[in-house]
Design brief:
4-stranded mixed beta sheet, 15% strand
Length: 382
């Protein structure tokens, strides 16, 4: 991979730090955690000790304030080593950015400094069993009772929900209002009436826990509400506009890992008396894989730089970047297995894991189909 001329010295330094960390302290554990479907304790500890948790947090709250592009660079490097660990890493800004965007001064002081150091872990809970792509169709209710809201219902697909200390939870004050009724709350671990449910057994990113959340007359103080009633849906979408570039960067990392593995194997594997890299059919496959990864990286970086420049309304570019990168990762991982042949279908080589991990990139944080709907709406002005 060639260097990127437009990176600042700080961005290049943070990328190089993440790359060294990923290769030396995360990659060696990836297969073990995947096989055991266990939380990546060693990998997460390595990230925490490196100080990379705080790069999205403003300096006034103890962070580095390096922005979305820096976050994307780190996400790519970690995902190259272990996509599950990268998912865990990105859950911190996913759960924490709503506080930065809509939190009160007190909420920001309470949570952001500890999120920056990793003292607290965050999560983001929008999806429900009957509300995935239809994010406005929430059924989890939040009824105002004096100085508290009483939450009832269930959430689904919450990454890190069983390890998070604080979760940004989206519920509705009136299901009939759909998007206009969605409201965000900060729910802390241990609140009465809040329970973690089933942990999913997944095809990929198996070291990243994905759980259900259950609320049974869970009382949440009014001061734990983020923004005003009915502002939650807009907050959820604004957050995703900022995190989708970094999510796309995860897909780039998976694609780059699959490409690197395929190139290395093609140089070593001998057939018909020569390395398979000498055959034009393999060369063309590798060239197409490289173009997909490179174009995905540039689209992700463009969308991330828009966020850093303070450009609002970047939904179009963020959706394109996430969609293209996700589809690219899936195609590249598929072709990497083809280059490996029968060996690629076994767990002896990591491309089998890359393939499983790549698939989720086309589903979470908005499916590739939803991204295309968003892109078309922006194009058509509807």
């Amino acid at each position: 991979m060639r260097d990127l001329f437009y990176l600042t010295d700080d961005q290049r330094a943070i990328r190089d730090l993440a790359r060294k960390l990923a290769r030396e302290r995360i990659a060696p554990h990836a297969a073990r955690y995947d096989e055991a479907e266990a939380y990546p304790e060693d990998s997460m500890r390595a990230i925490l000790e490196s100080g990379l948790f705080g790069i999205w947090v403003p300096e006034e709250y103890g962070g580095n304030d390096l922005g979305c592009l820096a976050l994307s660079l780190v996400a790519e490097e970690i995902a190259w080593a272990c996509a599950a660990t990268a998912t865990q890493y990105l859950d911190q800004p996913l759960g924490g950015l709503p506080i930065l965007l809509s939190g009160t001064a007190e909420q920001k002081k309470k949570y952001l400094p500890r999120l920056a150091t990793g003292e607290l872990l965050a999560a983001y809970s929008l999806s429900e069993p009957g509300a995935g792509s239809d994010a406005a169709g929430l059924k989890t209710t939040a009824a105002r009772r004096g100085d508290r809201y009483v939450l009832n219902g269930s959430k689904q697909w919450c990454t890190n929900g069983d390890h998070a200390d604080v979760i940004t939870v989206f519920a509705t004050v009136d299901p009939k209002k759909r998007a206009k009724g969605v409201t965000a709350f900060l729910v802390e671990k241990g609140m009465p009436g809040f329970a973690v449910g089933k942990k999913e057994k997944k095809m990929g990113i198996r070291a990243s826990p994905t759980v259900a959340l259950h609320f049974t007359d869970c009382e949440v103080p009014v001061e734990q509400r983020l923004g005003a009633e009915g502002e939650g849906f807009t907050l959820a979408m604004r957050t995703l506009d900022m995190t989708r570039p970094a999510t796309g960067a995860m897909a780039v990392g998976i694609g780059q890992a699959a490409l690197d593995a395929a190139v290395g194997y093609a140089k070593e594997r001998q057939q018909f008396g020569q390395a398979i890299a000498s055959f034009q059919g393999i060369q063309f496959m590798l060239a197409d894989m490289a173009m997909l990864v490179h174009s995905a990286r540039l689209m992700v970086h463009h969308a991330a730089r828009q966020v850093d420049a303070g450009i609002t309304g970047n939904t179009y570019e963020a959706s394109m970047a996430k969609c293209w990168a996700a589809d690219a990762a899936m195609k590249v991982a598929t072709d990497a297995i083809q280059v490996f042949g029968g060996y690629g279908y076994t767990r002896e080589f990591p491309v089998e894991r890359f393939f499983r991990d790549a698939k989720i990139m086309q589903i979470y944080e908005g499916t590739s189909q939803i991204q295309r709907i968003v892109i078309a709406r922006e194009l058509l002005g509807s």
